[in-house]
């Protein structure tokens, strides 16, 4: 069998074919002319164009590699990409040594592109490429070849797989996929400063030949920048490039394949290089002298003018701070920096007065905020300028001699008396007369008047310090020649105190005197008050009326805290004799002249417990000899009436003799009486009640009588004979207990039936 494969003539392909000789039963012949036919042999042979010695050597090697498993084997074929011609290109020829030449063998091709890209002559075994191939689209194709019987289509040999490789040619130019490029580099950079790097790609085979070997160069952008031919790193080619001279550069970069040799393909891209700013320029005022004018009545903080120092740098490198470093107006003016406009704003700090000074001269300085130490040798990064400010005259409102006034007046001052005076003047050269008035919104009661010409304030209505200590009014000064020029000033008037109020008791006092009190005992402590407010504080003097200096019952004692104690001179006070005592007391202050008043203290005589606690101050408690109060007396009378009713009932029962006591009325007496059929102990039975409570209802200390609902009950003691109304004589007792507030009253009655 003879197999001929056509391919390229490159020496590399020849070496590759020689390596394939180790594959049994493969014959490779790489040549452009038609293949040479050789007689069939027991094994496949590789026939190549060349000298007879090479052919003999290959023949010997093929004999050594004799292998009889199958008639033909091959590995790979080659075809040039982008080949075009009038006829399909012959890629190779298949032939098996089983073919005797009788045309009974048919060759079949299958796999990648079989029938569409590659076509085989089933009789001769010639393989042709019928389409134009592109290695960048597909670099190799894997196919399967097989020899079958022409008539039966039975395989004569097992199928064999081989590869057709598309041989690369330099048909793709380099491309910059990420272009165009942009890069920045600081201005004033040193020579060789790296800017950026670019990358180009070539679709050709990077392994075979130099089709994808790229070399970079700069077509435009010299002499400012250079590029490394292999790494494509762009660097500065000139030192100290100045952004202020030229900020942007356009660089054209070329990438060429074939190692840059003639005939190679090339591609280009652009790189825009921008120089970034550094602070290499000082600020500079546009002019050395500035002139501004300002009215004297301008409001504080108003901008008078702007000065600007230009800086060729940009951004923060151009930021400058402004200061006033000298001049006769440093205390009146200030300068601030405008970060947006990069200029200095001159403002007024203190009021101007044309009549005092008509012009000012300032020296201002502008200095960079951010200084680069690399360029400090270029000189100071600051500049100065002179500013002249002229003050213009303006019609100013009147000016008071004081921003506020404080006046004092006694509360007993006479009407129309002068309290004080305010003064004002026109600061202008014309000096207009001033007219004064009171803002009546601050003096609604019209307590004060003012002289319109001289500003004297007088009293219009009486004052009372005890009603109002301070009066705050506003005085208005108006220019007569220009009524629109108005000024206001606050005036505070303090009302001074005079001793016009007499002292009196601080509150309504009522004293209580115990009947069992002791001589010298303090009955009550009182204090005094005075509406006046003396400078040294209050000091009161207390005394009794002259006709009561020798009062036999009471005396007074001054305490250190400016209070007064009333003391009893003796004991034995009796409510029956006199229930209430009136004690007039004279209270004097320490004013000049001193004022005094008489206050009367009411003293009541009361019954007290042994420890001095007041229990009763009513004289009706003495009506009963046993000392019962009126409330207790009423309770006892109610008890007596109830007993009389019971007696009447029992008298009625005796008339009915032995008839039982039955009360059929719905309002039964038993609703309020509890009945016990126990025999009592007679008159000598005293355990059922407390006689002492009946005799002394006020024995409970600290409580006054209080009426409540009665609790009624009766019981029979010491029974003599049991049974109710059995005919025997039974001594019965009825015990009632009344609660009048906190006093318990016992009522007992006894009878015999």
TrEMBL record:
Gene3D superfamilies attached to this UniProt entry: Cadherins
The principal location of this protein is membrane
Q: Subcellular location, in the record's words?
A: Cell membrane
Q: Name one Pfam family in it.
A: Cadherin
Gene Ontology molecular-function annotations: beta-catenin binding; cadherin binding; calcium ion binding
| GO cellular component, as recorded | adherens junction; axon terminus; catenin complex; synaptic cleft
Ranges of residues in domain Cadherin: 96-176, 177-285, 286-400, 401-505, 505-627
Q: Where is the signal peptide?
A: none
Topology class, membrane:
Single-pass type I membrane protein
Q: List where the protein spans the membrane.
A: 622-651
What are the entry keywords?
A: Calcium, Cell adhesion, Cell membrane, Glycoprotein, Membrane, Metal-binding, Repeat, Signal, Transmembrane, Transmembrane helix
GO terms (BP aspect): adherens junction organization; calcium-dependent cell-cell adhesion via plasma membrane cell adhesion molecules; cell migration; cell morphogenesis; cell-cell adhesion mediated by cadherin; cell-cell junction assembly; homophilic cell adhesion via plasma membrane adhesion molecules
Kindly give the PANTHER family that the UniProt entry links to this protein. Answer: CADHERIN-23, CADHERIN-8
Q: What is this protein called?
A: Cadherin-8 isoform X8
Q: Which gene encodes it?
A: CDH8
């Amino acid at each position: 069998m003879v197999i001929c494969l056509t391919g390229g003539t490159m020496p590399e392909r020849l070496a590759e074919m020689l390596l394939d000789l180790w594959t049994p039963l493969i014959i490779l012949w790489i040549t452009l002319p038609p293949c040479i036919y050789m007689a069939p042999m027991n094994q496949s042979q590789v026939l190549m164009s060349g000298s007879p010695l090479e052919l003999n050597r290959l023949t010997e090697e093929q004999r050594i590699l004799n292998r009889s498993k199958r008639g033909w084997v091959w590995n790979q074929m080659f075809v040039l990409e982008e080949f075009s011609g009038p006829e399909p290109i012959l890629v190779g020829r298949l032939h098996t040594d089983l073919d005797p030449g009788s045309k009974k063998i048919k060759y079949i091709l299958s796999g990648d592109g079989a029938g569409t890209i590659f076509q085989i002559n089933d009789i001769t075994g010639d393989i042709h490429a019928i389409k134009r191939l592109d290695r960048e689209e597909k670099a190799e194709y894997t196919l399967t070849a097989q020899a079958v019987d022409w008539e039966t289509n039975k395989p004569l040999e097992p199928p064999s797989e081989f590869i057709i490789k598309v041989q690369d040619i330099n048909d793709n130019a380099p491309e910059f996929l990420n272009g165009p490029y942009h890069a920045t580099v600081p201005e004033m950079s040193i020579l060789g400063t790296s800017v950026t790097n670019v990358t180009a790609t070539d679709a050709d085979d990077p392994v075979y030949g130099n089709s994808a070997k790229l070399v970079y160069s700069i077509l435009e952008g010299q002499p400012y920048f250079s590029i490394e031919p292999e790494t494509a790193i762009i660097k500065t080619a000139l030192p100290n490039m100045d952004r202020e001279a030229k900020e942007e550069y356009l660089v054209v970069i070329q990438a060429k394949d074939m190692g840059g040799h003639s005939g190679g393909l090339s591609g280009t891209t652009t790189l825009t290089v921008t120089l970034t700013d550094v602070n290499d320029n000082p600020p500079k005022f546009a002019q050395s002298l500035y002139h501004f004018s300002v009215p004297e009545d301008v409001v504080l903080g108003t901008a008078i003018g702007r000065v600007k120092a230009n800086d060729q740098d940009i951004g923060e490198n151009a930021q400058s701070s402004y200061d006033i470093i000298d001049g006769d107006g440093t205390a009146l003016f200030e300068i601030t920096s405008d970060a947006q406009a990069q200029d200095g704003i001159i403002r007024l700090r203190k009021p101007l007065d044309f009549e005092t000074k008509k012009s000012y001269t300032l020296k201002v300085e502008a200095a960079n905020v951010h200084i680069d130490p690399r360029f400090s040798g270029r000189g100071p990064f600051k500049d100065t300028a002179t500013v002249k400010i002229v003050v213009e005259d303006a019609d100013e409102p009147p000016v008071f001699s004081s921003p506020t006034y404080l006046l004092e007046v006694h509360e007993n001052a006479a009407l129309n008396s002068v309290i004080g005076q305010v003064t004002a003047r026109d600061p202008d050269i014309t000096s207009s007369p001033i007219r004064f008035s009171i803002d009546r919104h601050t003096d609604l009661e019209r307590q004060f008047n003012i002289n319109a010409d001289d500003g004297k304030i007088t009293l219009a209505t009486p004052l009372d310090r005890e009603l109002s200590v301070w009066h705050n009014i506003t005085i208005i000064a108006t220019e007569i020649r220009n009524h629109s020029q108005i000024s206001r000033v606050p005036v505070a008037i303090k009302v001074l105190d005079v001793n016009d109020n007499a002292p009196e008791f601080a509150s309504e006092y009522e004293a209580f005197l115990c009947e069992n009190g002791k001589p010298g005992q303090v009955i009550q402590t009182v204090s005094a008050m005075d509406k006046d407010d003396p400078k040294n504080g209050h000091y009161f003097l207390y005394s009794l009326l002259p006709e009561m200096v020798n009062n036999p019952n009471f005396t007074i004692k001054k305490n250190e805290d400016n209070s007064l104690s009333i003391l009893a001179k003796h004991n034995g006070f009796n409510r029956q004799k006199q229930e209430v005592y009136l004690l007039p007391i004279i209270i004097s202050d320490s004013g000049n002249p001193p004022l005094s008043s008489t206050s009367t203290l009411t003293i009541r005589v009361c019954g007290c417990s042994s420890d001095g606690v007041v229990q009763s101050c009513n004289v009706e408690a003495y009506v009963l000899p046993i000392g019962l109060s009126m409330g207790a007396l009423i309770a006892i009378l109610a008890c007596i009436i109830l007993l009389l009713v019971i007696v009447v009932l029992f008298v009625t029962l005796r008339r009915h003799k032995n008839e039982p006591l039955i009360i059929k009325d719905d309002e039964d007496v038993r609703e309020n009486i509890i009945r016990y059929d126990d025999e009592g102990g007679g008159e000598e039975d005293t355990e059922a009640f407390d006689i002492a409570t009946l005799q002394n209802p006020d024995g409970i200390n600290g409580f006054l009588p209080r009426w409540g609902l009665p609790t009624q009950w009766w019981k029979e003691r010491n029974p003599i004979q049991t049974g109710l109304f059995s005919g025997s004589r039974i001594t019965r007792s009825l015990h009632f207990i009344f609660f009048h507030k906190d006093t318990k009253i016992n009522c007992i009655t006894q009878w015999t039936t």
